């Protein structure tokens, strides 16, 4: 709060209020953000930029926010930037009159096409200075580029990029290229953008309203905006609502509505039945099978013409509707009479209808990902429903699980092998719970999710009201880890030509760093290793990203861009002088590392930001220490 009092209007001579905010206002901010890793400083820089925009051309706030999150539409619309390097290299060469081969070799050397673009632009003679690029102009141009389709689209894209290039000045060309590549990566997380948006609106539009000190109001504003955005994840609604109505009653002006995915509630790991009983000693809970498939958030509603609409969203709010036409078709006959609209939380699981048996996740992953036609489907899927978030115009997030389950019962008509309720039971007896866990595993699921019966639905939270109990807890850590491969060492002997081992990292959202947690080199089949090597070769970059945190004594032969997410199993965790995961959290100066990691599977459904966090690693380390201490004291007593 104190830092905001030093806010100054910065002078941009190009800033003609009638023409809108110059793009340079943002790229200068990006540059400053890229030079720091301090989260507070990043928030401050971005807030002040948003404040300037609100003061002088508030209509540019929405495109500015989109440019900061590097998107041109809400995530669930699937309209993405992410142009291939080859197209961009051609566009840079054409627009600046440089040879493609030169651009390519400079790119290979520096690892950042943005820097190459800035220097190519810098050495180009400009005969007629063009008007400055604007924030809204850039947003429109990026959107048009993302939307271009058809046989001539590559040429159209190159032309559009060329035009932007010729008008760019200073650092702008670099950010144009990085944005188009879909890797702006200046260490700006979406949560920080939401915080800055809230702070800027509070300071410019709402600074006198509300109770408490400015610091308290800033915190509350950020919480409000994040909460509203998790239920209404589209800036097209949230930003205008903020500008028009401020922070009070924001949820009324940016409400949840079917058709917009909600970030799902997630569970915390536990190490065994006794931990569950300890944690839930004074509340009623239920256990459900933890099915091993893909999360499916199913939205059913009627459009203005009275036609039933169905949309299916993944764990990461991606639109999976075209992957599951069979489920879409099924919905009409699976809903009870009188159901006009509903949002169901389910797991889509591969299912053998003859044998009435759940099939492993690997079978589900063989299904095509997009534009599937019903006749081509070979893997049948059963939906296991476990929650209901919305029913006939009524929001259920604030209702306890017991109430939501009752509604779920009144929405779904169970049909074996097509749509079923998640198997559940209530007990406090250790033997019964262990028996149910064993049954769950025998039925082909991952274990159990234990849920408190009075808990509300907490979107995007890894909640203490949902505890997962996986069979893995019997043989190592309580849970698997989702890690990002950021480097690799070349293979030797039989593994020559591919990679022999990989450097893996977890995510620290506070520092916006990917922190190394272990090296993995065993447990792969040669075939699997070749497949992984082929996949990862496409992500090689010249040097490590600024936000990679690694030990100086563990430098891989090649670095990767943070793209892939792998799920790994661990024997245990230990304090490490080399690895940086959760540095300073469990130990004052050291990090945590995983011992004996084994690859479980590649997680195509997760982004690097969804990797296991430093906080989760610390919790698991502390949990493990606790369990070991208990075991030891039991042994001592015996
Ligand atoms: P994982 O790596 O185990 O998939 P995750 O981080 O994606 O973990 P978790 O918090 O571990 O998510 O577990 C929640 C996931 O478990 C949900 O996203 C859902 O896909 C799946 N799931 C299966 N059965 C249930 C259930 N009965 N209730 C809630 N989630 C369930």
Automatic annotation (TrEMBL):
Gene Ontology cellular-component terms for this entry are: mitochondrion; nucleus
Ranges where the ATP-dependent DNA ligase family profile domain occurs: 374-508
One annotated GO molecular function: ATP binding
Q: Is Ligase there in the keyword field?
A: yes
Q: What class of enzyme is it?
A: ligase
| Primary subcellular site in the record, as a coarse category | nucleus
Show the catalytic activity. Answer: ATP + (deoxyribonucleotide)n-3'-hydroxyl + 5'-phospho-(deoxyribonucleotide)m = (deoxyribonucleotide)n+m + AMP + diphosphate
Q: What is its EC number?
A: 6.5.1.1
Q: Which GO terms describe its biological process?
A: cell division; DNA biosynthetic process; DNA recombination; DNA repair; lagging strand elongation
**Where would you find this protein in the cell?**
Nucleus
Q: Which UniProt keywords apply?
A: ATP-binding, Cell cycle, Cell division, DNA damage, DNA recombination, DNA repair, DNA replication, Ligase, Nucleotide-binding, Nucleus, Signal
Q: Which family does it belong to?
A: Belongs to the ATP-dependent DNA ligase family.
Name by which UniProt lists this protein: DNA ligase
Organism per entry: Ostreobium quekettii
């Amino acid at each position: 709060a104190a830092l905001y009092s030093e806010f100054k209007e910065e002078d941009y001579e190009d800033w003609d209020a009638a023409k809108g905010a110059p793009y340079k206002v943002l790229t200068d901010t990006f540059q400053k953000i890229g030079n720091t890793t301090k989260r507070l400083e990043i928030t401050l820089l971005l807030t002040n930029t948003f404040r300037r925009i609100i003061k002088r051309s508030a209509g540019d706030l929405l495109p500015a926010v989109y440019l900061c999150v590097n998107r041109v539409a809400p995530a669930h619309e699937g309209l993405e930037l992410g142009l291939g390097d080859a197209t961009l290299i051609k566009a840079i060469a054409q627009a600046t009159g440089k040879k493609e081969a030169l651009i390519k070799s400079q790119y290979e050397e520096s690892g950042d096409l943005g820097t190459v673009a800035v220097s190519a632009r810098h050495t180009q003679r400009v005969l007629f200075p063009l008007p400055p690029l604007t924030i809204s102009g850039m947003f429109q141009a990026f959107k048009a580029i993302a939307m271009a389709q058809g046989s001539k689209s590559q040429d159209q894209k190159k032309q559009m990029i060329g035009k932007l290039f010729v008008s760019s000045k200073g650092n702008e060309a670099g950010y144009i290229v990085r944005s188009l590549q879909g890797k702006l990566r200046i260490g700006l997380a979406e949560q920080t953008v939401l915080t800055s948006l809230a702070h800027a609106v509070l300071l410019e539009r709402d600074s006198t309203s509300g109770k408490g000190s400015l610091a308290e109001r800033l915190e509350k504003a950020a919480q409000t905006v994040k909460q509203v955005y998790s239920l209404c994840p589209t800036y097209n609604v949230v930003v205008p609502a903020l500008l028009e109505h401020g922070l009070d009653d924001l949820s009324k002006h940016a409400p949840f509505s079917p058709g917009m995915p909600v970030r799902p509630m997630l569970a915390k790991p536990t190490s065994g039945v006794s931990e569950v009983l300890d944690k839930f000693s004074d509340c009623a809970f239920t256990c459900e099978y933890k099915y091993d498939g893909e999360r499916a958030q199913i939205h059913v509603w009627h459009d203005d013409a009275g036609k039933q609409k169905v949309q299916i969203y993944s764990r990461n709010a991606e639109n999976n509707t075209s992957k599951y036409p069979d489920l879409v078709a099924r919905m009409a006959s699976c809903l009870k009479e009188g159901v006009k609209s509903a949002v169901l939380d389910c797991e889509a699981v591969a299912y053998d209808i003859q044998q009435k048996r759940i099939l492993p996740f690997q079978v589900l992953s063989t299904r095509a990902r997009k534009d599937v036609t019903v006749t081509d489907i070979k893997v049948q899927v059963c939906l296991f429903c476990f929650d209901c978030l919305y029913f006939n115009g009524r929001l259920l997030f604030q209702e306890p699980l017991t109430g939501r389950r009752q509604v779920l019962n009144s929405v779904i008509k169970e049909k074996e092998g097509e749509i079923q309720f998640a198997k559940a039971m209530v007990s406090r007896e250790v033997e019964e719970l262990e028996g149910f866990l064993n049954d769950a595993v025998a039925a082909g699921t991952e274990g159990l999710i234990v849920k408190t019966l009075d808990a509300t639905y907490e979107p995007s939270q890894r909640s203490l009201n949902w505890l997962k109990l996986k069979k893995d807890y019997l043989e190592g850590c309580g849970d698997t880890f989702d890690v990002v491969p950021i480097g690799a060492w070349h293979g030797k002997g039989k593994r020559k030509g591919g990679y022999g081992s990989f450097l893996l990292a977890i995510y620290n959202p506070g520092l916006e760093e990917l922190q190394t947690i272990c090296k993995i080199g065993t447990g792969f089949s040669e075939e699997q290793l070749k497949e992984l090597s082929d996949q990862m070769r496409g992500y090689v970059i010249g040097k490590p990203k600024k936000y990679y945190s690694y030990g100086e004594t563990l430098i891989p032969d090649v670095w990767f861009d943070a793209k892939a997410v792998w799920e790994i199993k661990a024997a245990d965790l230990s304090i490490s002088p080399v690895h940086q995961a959760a540095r300073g959290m469990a130990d004052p100066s050291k990090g945590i590392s995983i011992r004996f990691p084994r690859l479980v599977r590649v997680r195509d459904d997760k982004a690097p930001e969804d990797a296991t966090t430093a906080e989760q690693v610390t919790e698991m380390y502390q949990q493990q220490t606790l369990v070991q201490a208990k075991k030891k004291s039991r042994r001592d007593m015996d």
